[in-house]
């Protein structure tokens, strides 16, 4: 049992990250570490350089993301929390897997198509090969389970394809090197959408801050964003089927359900026939109530740079030790001679 997942330290942790991934990280940490399973959670700082970035911001964002994760419940004594840059095995493993990954596979990645847009010639090579680094991130540790939001499913499938091809090409049939990881996607919050556009996912890269709820938002900002969220003029239906064709309404009901720990059907049973004038303040309150304790912890933790660096150093040391055996076996399988 080994759980591995990552998050890019670009900007704030938002509600999509929290409900889609981080909440599951915490649940799995609490459940599995008690049973002797290991959880590795990392800041994907090497991934962050695939897009234009400001070096001074990357360091600050990395530390802030550590503070955010710990505030959400990641416990550095139960989980191994680190950043990729302190574990060179990630970059090494990516290079070793580059020989196995196919151009055609990477060309099909929707995130590459979305992020490169029409300017493929001007996109960085790192943006194109990013999914191979992501495969390296999990294969390096023989991950069995990878908790992520829906948008990372395709990258995980690619990791499985790379693992399978490598095992076929370079290992004896009865001694495969890589474990095929399973994605763990929360059904109730797989894809949290933008508050301004029900067809776009909530994202750090959306230029409008009104499109997302950040962990750092205070109560006023949360209430304001929910109040201004795009909706339609209809009242809420009594059943989930009644939300069909109403992406914004469906998103807000989904957020309420995920935050309150109930099903969308239960939310609708409670609010059937009510308009957004009534539903939005209730949603705002649920959000403020649940996020406020995390936000308070975050504001305290982010000030202690030495403590945050110590968490990363300790995590990286453990991660380096766990990565070494698989990395060595990969060099060997490829016939590379090393001293
Ligand atoms: P990133 O940093 O974009 O997002 C971190 C996690 O949050 C989830 N997520 C969402 N879930 C639901 N609704 C949303 N609107 C939403 N937005 C983000 C993501 O699915 C993700 O689980 N490539 C990854 C980081 C990564 C990684 C890995 C993940 C690097 N190596 C290895 C798993 C395993 C990324 O950019 O996630």
Structure description:
This protein has 339 residues and is mostly helical. The chain has two domains: 2-190 and 305-333, HUPs (Rossmann fold, 3-Layer(aba) Sandwich), CATH 3.40.50; 209-300, Tyrosyl-Transfer RNA Synthetase (Orthogonal Bundle), CATH 1.10.240.10. The protein has 13 helices and five strands. It has helices at residues 15-33, 45-48, 55-72, 89-98, 103-107, 110-116, 125-139, 153-170, 219-228, 247-260, 264-271, 276-301, 305-333; strands at residues 2-7, 38-43, 80-83, 145-147, 182-184. It is globular. The model has no long low-confidence stretch (mean pLDDT 96). Residues 5-8, 16-17, 20-21, 44, 47, 134, 137-138, 146, 148-149, 151-152, 191-192, 201-203 line the site of tryptophanyl-5'AMP (TYM).
Could you give a quick summary of the protein structure above?
The chain is mainly α. Helices cover 54% and strands 6% of the residues.
**Helix/strand class:** mainly alpha
Strand numbers in spatial order across the main sheet:
1-2-3
Mean pLDDT: 96
Radius of gyration: 21 Å
Main CATH class of the largest domain: Alpha Beta
- The CATH topology of the largest domain is given as Rossmann fold
Question: Poorly predicted ranges (pLDDT <50, ≥5 residues)?
Answer: none
How far is the first residue's CA from the last residue's CA? 32 Å
CATH architecture term of the largest domain = 3-Layer(aba) Sandwich
Helix fraction by DSSP (H/I, runs of at least 4)? 40-55%
The tally of domains stands at 2
Q: How many E strands?
A: 5
């Amino acid at each position: 049992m080994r759980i591995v997942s990552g998050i890019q330290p670009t900007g704030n942790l938002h509600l999509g990250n929290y409900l889609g991934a981080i909440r599951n990280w915490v649940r799995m940490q609490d459940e599995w570490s008690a049973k002797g399973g290991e959880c590795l959670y990392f800041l994907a700082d090497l991934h962050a350089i695939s897009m234009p970035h400001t070096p001074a911001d990357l360091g600050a964002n990395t530390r802030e993301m550590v503070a955010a994760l710990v505030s959400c419940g990641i416990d550095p004594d139960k989980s191994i929390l680190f950043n990729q840059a302190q574990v060179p095995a990630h970059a090494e493993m990516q290079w070793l897997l580059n020989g196995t990954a196919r151009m055609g596979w990477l060309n099909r990645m929707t995130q590459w198509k979305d992020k490169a847009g029409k300017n493929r010639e001007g996109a960085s090579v790192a943006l194109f090969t990013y999914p191979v680094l992501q495969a390296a991130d999990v294969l390096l540790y023989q991950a069995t389970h990878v908790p992520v939001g829906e948008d990372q499913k395709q990258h995980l499938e690619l990791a499985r394809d790379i693992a399978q091809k490598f095992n076929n090409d370079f290992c004896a049939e009865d001694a495969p090197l890589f474990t095929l990881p399973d994605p763990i996607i929360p059904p109730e919050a797989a894809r949290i959408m933008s508050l301004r556009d029900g067809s776009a996912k909530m994202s750090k890269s959306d230029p409008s801050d009104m499109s997302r709820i950040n962990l750092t938002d205070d109560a006023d900002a949360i209430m304001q964003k929910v109040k201004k969220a795009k909706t339609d003029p209809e009242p809420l239906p009594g059943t989930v089927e009644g939300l069909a064709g109403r992406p914004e309404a469906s998103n807000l009901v989904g957020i309420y359900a995920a935050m309150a720990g109930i099903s969308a059907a239960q939310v609708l049973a409670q609010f059937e026939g009510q308009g957004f004038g009534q539903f939005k303040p209730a949603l705002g309150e649920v959000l403020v109530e649940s996020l406020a304790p995390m936000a308070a912890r975050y504001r305290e933790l982010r000030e202690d740079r030495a403590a945050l660096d110590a968490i990363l150093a300790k995590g990286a040391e453990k991660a380096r030790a766990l990565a070494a055996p698989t990395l060595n076996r990969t060099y060997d399988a490829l016939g590379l001679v090393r001293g």
